[in-house]
Amino acid sequence: MKHNILLAFSFAFRDFKERYVGTGLGQFWYILSPLVMIFIYTVIFSDFMKMKLDIVDNSYGYSIYLVPGLLAWATFSTIIMQLNTSFFEKSNLIKKINVPMYTFQLSIILTETFLFFISILLALGFLIIVNQPITWTFLWMIPIMILQVLFAFGIGVIVSLFTPFFKDLKEVVPIIIQLWFWMTPIIYLSSMIENKYPFLLEYNPFYWFVKIYQDIFLYSKSPSFETLWVLIIMTLVTLIVAGYLYKKMIATIKDII
Amino acid sequence: MNKILEVKNITKIYKMYNNNFNRLKEIFTNNSYHKEFIANRDISFDLYKGETLGIIGVNGAGKSTILKIIAGVIEPTSGKIIRHGRVTALLELGTGFNPQMTGRENIFLNATLIGMTHKECKERLKDIIEFSELGDYIEEPIMTYSSGMSMRLAFSIAIYSEPQILIVDEALSVGDAHFAAKCTKALRDRKKQNMSIIYVSHDLNSLKLLCDRVILLNHGEVAKEGNPEDVINSYNFLISKLNDKEEKLVIKNSENSSFGTFDVEIKKVTIIGEKSNSNIISAGENSTIKIDIYSKIDISDMTIGIMIRDKFGQDIFGTNSFHQKLNISFNSNKYYICSFQMSLNIGVGEYSISAAIHSEDTHLENCAHWLDNATSFKIAGTVDNVFAGICKLEPKIKFEEIK
Question: Residue A27 to residues A24, A32, A56, B141: CA-CA distances in angstroms?
Answer without folding.
Answer: 9, 9, 36, 20
